[in-house]
Amino acid sequence: MKATTTRPGLDALVTGISAIVARGLDRRHTAYAVADLLRDRLPGLDLLTPAEREGSPDGYASHILHAREEFSILAVVWRPGQDTVIHDHVSWCAFGVISGIEHETLYRDMGDHLVEIGRADNRPGEVSGFAPPGDIHEVRNTSGETGVSLHVYGANVLRLGSSVRRVYDLPVR
């Protein structure tokens, strides 16, 4: 898949994120700074084509909108009830919800099991950022509509194939 920057609002995001990354902040502060930028410049649904906004009946769909060595921008489309496995990430991340509700459950790895440490319902317009370690979570679209969110990762997902570092199949206690 070829990444592109010919989508409404994407060029401004790429320019802003590039400037933040060039500052050389640590991972956590980079994630927070990119989240602040997303709060100001979160694109609308027209970022995706109507076909991309439909999602997939087989699971959430990721559309790589821009990728370079320093960061990648993806749009994730979730039909109602679709979710991720419990996982963490290879890099810092910032995300903004454009539509739907992303219910996020956070976990702590205790070695032989996971412990739930928090939950959040991320609604349209809400933005957050995080960085490993401590980024173990699963996400589900709990709304009755197809959800769309924009994710920025501090890694080249075209080269890596995914933003996921590890999938956790430990019991939750």
From TrEMBL:
<keyword id="KW-0560">Oxidoreductase</keyword>
<keyword id="KW-0223">Dioxygenase</keyword>
<dbReference type="GO" id="GO:0051213">
    <property type="term" value="F:dioxygenase activity"/>
</dbReference>
<dbReference type="Pfam" id="PF05995">
    <property type="entry name" value="CDO_I"/>
</dbReference>
<dbReference type="InterPro" id="IPR014710">
    <property type="entry name" value="RmlC-like_jellyroll"/>
</dbReference>
<protein>
    <submittedName>
        <fullName>Cysteine dioxygenase</fullName>
    </submittedName>
</protein>
<keyword id="KW-0479">Metal-binding</keyword>
<dbReference type="InterPro" id="IPR011051">
    <property type="entry name" value="RmlC_Cupin_sf"/>
</dbReference>
<dbReference type="InterPro" id="IPR010300">
    <property type="entry name" value="CDO_1"/>
</dbReference>
<keyword id="KW-0408">Iron</keyword>
<comment type="similarity">
    <text>Belongs to the cysteine dioxygenase family.</text>
</comment>
